[in-house]
Amino acid sequence: MDFDLDGHEFIELNNLLKVTGLCHSGGMAKMVIADGAVLVDGNTETRKRCKIRSGQTVTFEATEITVK
Fold first, then answer.
1. What is the pLDDT of residue 44?
2. DSSP code per residue over the chain
3. What's domain 2-67's architecture?
4. Could you count the other beta carbons within 10 Å of the beta carbon of residue 45?
5. What are the angstrom distances between the C-alpha of 67 and each of 35, 41, 61?
6. C-alpha torsion angle, residues 30, 18, 49, 55 (rounded to 10)
């Protein structure tokens, strides 16, 4: 799945999971990040507000998001 930043510099990780529909709420997104269930560029990321920029890849539950 691709996600377009649409002119923005970055999106926070918890917001990315919410707007892509991988998590039904911001609270759920924060919980799965804190539990270590999300990878950014292949590494476990536990910072909820980690800034995701163009060129990075986020993986959650076998879904890979490429940020453009």
1. 98
2. -EE--TT-SEEEHHHHHHHTTSSSSHHHHHHHHHTT-EEETTEE---TTPEEETT-EEEETTEEEEE-
3. Roll (3.10)
4. 17
5. 22, 11, 17
6. 130
pLDDT digits (tens, 9 = 90+) for 10-21: 999 999 999 999
Question: Taking the domains of the chain in order of start, what are their residue ranges?
Answer: 2-67
How far apart CA 18 and CA 56 sit, in angstroms, is 17
Query: pLDDT of 22-56, one tens digit each?
Result: 999 999 999 999 999 999 999 999 999 999 999 99
Question: Using 50, 70 and 90 to split pLDDT, how confident is the model at 67?
Answer: very high
